[in-house]
TrEMBL record:
Pfam families: DUF881 (PF05949). InterPro entries: DUF881. It comes from Micromonospora radicis. Residues 1-14 have a biased composition (Basic and acidic residues). The keyword Membrane applies. Residues 280-310 have a biased composition (Low complexity). This is DUF881 domain-containing protein. The chain crosses the membrane at residues 54-75. The keyword Ribosomal protein does not apply. PANTHER family: UPF0749 PROTEIN RV1823, UPF0749 PROTEIN RV1825.
C-alpha cells in the first residue's frame, strides 16, 4: 500500500488554483466602457477637441423657430382674451349679487305677506280657533315664537391647529354631526322650538353637509354656529348632562374648538318656510279579470281567487 505523496495531492495533479474576477469586481475595476477610451485615443490622434461644439442641423433650426412662433401666438391670444374673461367673471359676480338681493327682497316680501295672512285668518276664525291655530303653528315650527331658553354656540378652532393633547379626535372644525347631536339632545332636554343660525327646525328638517359646507334644510350656514332653543327653565341643566354636551366639551378641550352654553332671555325664533308636502295615494286597482268558471253551467256565483268556483 503506497503512501500518498505531495505530488499525488489535488494541487499537484491540477496545478495551482487561480481565481477569475467576477462581474462586479471587473465593473468596479474598469468602470469606463472601452469605447470611451478608444474615442479618446482617436481624438488624440486627429487633434480634435475633447468636447466638440454643438452641431445644429437646418431641420432643428426650423423646428425651434416654429415652436417659438407658436408660443408667441399662444401668449398673445392669452393676453388678448384676458380682458374678456375678466369682464365675464365680473358679470357673473354682478348677476350672483343681484340674484341674492332679489332673493332677500322676495323673502322679506313673503314674510310681510305671511303676517298679513295670519292677521286675516285670525280675524276670520275667532278667538279659540285662532289660539289653537297659533299653538299648532308654534309646535310645528310654522309660526314665530318668543320666550326664554338656551343658546349653544360652536365655532371652529384656529386655522391650522390640530389636536392640543395628541389625542386622535379629528380636526378643530364643527361638523354637521355635531349640530345634529346638539339639536337632538336639546329636543331631549325639553326644547319646544329650535333654530340654527336663524333656520327654524321642523319635523322634516335635515342637517347635512355638502363638501365642507353645512346645510340646514338645504340652506348653507356658516360658523360660528348658534343653536337657539326655547324651553323650560330646567332645559339647560338637563342638556349640560347630555352626551353631546360632554363630548363637545372634551373635543373643545383637546382641539381648541369653541363650545359654549348660556341662558338667553326673550329669544325670538323665526317661522320656518311652509314645506312642500307630498301625500301618498293608493295605487289604481287593476281591472277585474274574466271569470274562470264554466260558462255553460249558468252558475251566477263569482269565481274564487284560484279560478275555480263552487
Amino acid at each position: 500500500m503506497s503512501e500518498r505523496t505531495g505530488d499525488d495531492s489535488g494541487e499537484g495533479r491540477r496545478g495551482p488554483r487561480t481565481f477569475t474576477p467576477d462581474f462586479l469586481t471587473e465593473l468596479f475595476r474598469n468602470p469606463l466602457d472601452p469605447g470611451y477610451g478608444d474615442a479618446a485615443l482617436r481624438r488624440a490622434r486627429t487633434g480634435q477637441p475633447a468636447r466638440p461644439g454643438w452641431s445644429v442641423s437646418p431641420v432643428s433650426v426650423v423646428v425651434i423657430v416654429l415652436l417659438g412662433f407658436l408660443c408667441a401666438v399662444a401668449y398673445r391670444q392669452t393676453t388678448a382674451e384676458e380682458p374678456g374673461r375678466a369682464q365675464a367673471r365680473s358679470g357673473l359676480v354682478a348677476q350672483i349679487k343681484q340674484r341674492q338681493a332679489d332673493t332677500d327682497a322676495m323673502s322679506d316680501r313673503a314674510e310681510v305677506l305671511r303676517e298679513e295672512v295670519n292677521r286675516q285668518r285670525q280675524a276670520a276664525l275667532g278667538g279659540s280657533q285662532a289660539t289653537r291655530l297659533r299653538n299648532l303653528e308654534a309646535s310645528t315650527g310654522l309660526g314665530r315664537v318668543r320666550g326664554d331658553g338656551v343658546v349653544v354656540r360652536l365655532a371652529d378652532g384656529p386655522a391650522g391647529q390640530g389636536s392640543l393633547s395628541g389625542a386622535n379626535v379629528g380636526p378643530a372644525e364643527v361638523l354637521y354631526s355635531d349640530l345634529q347631536g346638539v339639536a337632538n339632545d336639546l329636543w331631549g332636554a325639553g326644547a319646544e322650538a329650535i333654530s340654527i343660525n336663524g333656520q327654524r327646525l321642523t319635523s322634516t328638517s335635515t342637517i347635512r353637509n355638502a363638501a365642507k359646507a353645512i346645510l340646514v334644510d338645504f340652506r348653507p350656514v356658516t360658523g360660528p354656529y348658534e343653536v337657539s332653543a326655547i324651553g323650560p327653565g330646567s332645559m339647560r341643566k338637563r342638556y349640560e348632562a347630555s352626551r353631546s354636551a360632554l363630548t363637545m366639551r372634551k373635543v373643545a378641550q383637546d382641539t381648541g374648538l369653541s363650545f359654549e352654553v348660556r341662558d338667553a332671555d326673550d329669544l325670538t325664533l323665526p317661522a320656518a318656510p311652509e314645506p312642500q308636502l307630498r301625500y301618498a295615494e293608493p295605487a289604481v286597482s287593476p281591472s277585474a279579470s274574466p271569470s274562470g268558471g264554466d260558462e255553460s253551467s249558468g252558475s251566477g256565483t263569482s269565481p274564487s281567487p284560484s279560478g275555480g268556483g263552487r
